[in-house]
Write a structure and sequence with these properties.
alpha/beta, Elongation Factor Tu (Ef-tu), domain 3, Rossmann fold, Ubiquitin-like (UB roll), 3 domains, six-stranded antiparallel β-sheet, 20% helix, globular
Length: 359
């Protein structure tokens, strides 16, 4: 009887707590109390307030957010989830943290995407005082603990956000290693953080930025590919390479760098790369559906009328994890095939032959 009473009271308090603004929550129900030993729980969803907004380019803004007390520290290159409700529907997107690691100022940058529901909403409604539900920082696209002889960062479009944060952290820490920063954009006006990059080049002799502008005039017009990049790269050993941008852009550079032995490559895809044509058969066990499958398993599930939980659709957020009972899947990003029972990410997994999924 005592346990039942305590459980009822706890449920009542949790219901009441939902209607409190984030800053009013205390004790057991505060955002800080949702962490244990400094590690946020998976459902840790604090509310942060926009304290500043600034324009980066014609279609890109940066928002400075004030999270609640106890919010975990972030590393350069990590991202957060940001949730918005639009016409009664909850949407979640991932944005890289571009704030200064030293000050732990939480800042994100949003490029307005053509037809983008969330990016358009944020551009129109995210001003100082607005509150948004966020997640703890996460992601493994970060600087390695070991020191390297040189660093190469390659990005395109909004893929600049995590690599810019890493470059700034290296330079702030006083590294004397050479840093090569190669970014692809349409024009000089479209380069996010252009003024900051120019300032870093002026104040750090070991920072070498190179812009590849597809719509420039004359000799400045060029596209960033491994073939165009190769003559600019350092010839030394033990070079760390970081790639971020659209899938086909990242894949082209991965293929080029993989042929050399002196590069350690880390990648983050902002869109999925073109996938090879494979065809399999998927059995969704919970619903009993069986279907032929082309493309990734998230798309196959949605085409079959299912609505699995998902977020980024590009292998970053891990929201679309599902349990595979049997069969073989191919990872679209790495090309690696895995067999048997395991947890997989639906958005980056292609079926190879017969596959059984708990959906």
């Amino acid at each position: 009887m005592e346990q039942t009473t305590q459980t009822t009271l706890l449920e009542t308090f949790r219901l009441f707590e939902k209607y409190l603004p984030n800053f009013a929550r205390t004790g057991l129900f505060s955002p800080g109390a949702q962490q244990y030993a400094g590690v946020p729980k998976p459902d840790y969803r604090p509310v942060a307030m926009v304290t500043d907004r600034r324009n980066e380019t014609e279609d890109t803004i940066s928002l400075t957010l004030m999270p609640p007390a106890g919010y975990p520290a972030f590393r350069a290159g990590q991202h957060i989830d940001l949730a918005v409700e639009i016409r009664g529907v909850r949407h979640v997107r991932q944005y890289s943290v571009v704030g200064d690691v030293a000050t732990q100022q939480l800042r994100i940058t949003i490029k307005r995407q053509q037809g983008g529901i969330v990016s358009g909403f944020l551009h129109e409604h995210a001003f100082a005082g607005k509150r948004f539900e966020i997640s703890a920082p996460r992601g493994e696209f970060v600087l390695p603990a070991t020191r390297h002889s040189a660093y190469v960062f390659c990005s395109a479009g909004s893929g600049i956000t995590p690599v810019y944060a890493m470059v700034r952290e290296l330079l702030t820490a006083g590294t004397d290693a050479e840093i090569y920063f190669c970014h692809a954009a349409r024009s000089p006006k479209a380069v996010i953080f252009r003024a900051e990059l120019e300032h870093l080049a002026e104040t750090h002799a070991n920072f070498f930025p190179h812009l590849f502008l597809s719509e420039a005039e004359g000799v400045e017009k060029r596209r960033l590919s491994f073939e165009a990049l190769a003559p600019l790269l350092p010839s030394m050993q033990n070079v760390a390479v970081f790639l971020c941008g659209p899938g086909d852009f990242v894949k082209n550079l991965e293929v080029g760098f993989s042929a050399a032995q002196n590069y350690s490559v880390r990648s983050e895809y902002f869109t999925l790369p073109p996938a090879g044509v494979t065809e399999g058969q998927v059995h969704f066990l919970k619903t009993g559906l069986e279907t032929k499958a082309k493309g990734n398993l998230l798309e196959v599930a949605e085409a079959s009328g299912l609505k699995p939980k998902h977020g980024c659709r590009r292998g970053i957020c891990h929201e679309c994890k599902a349990h595979k009972i049997s069969g073989t899947v191919k990872n679209i990003l790495t090309g690696k095939e895995t067999q048997g029972e395991e947890n997989i990410q639906l958005c980056i997994s292609q079926p190879v032959g017969q596959v059984e999924i708990e959906l």
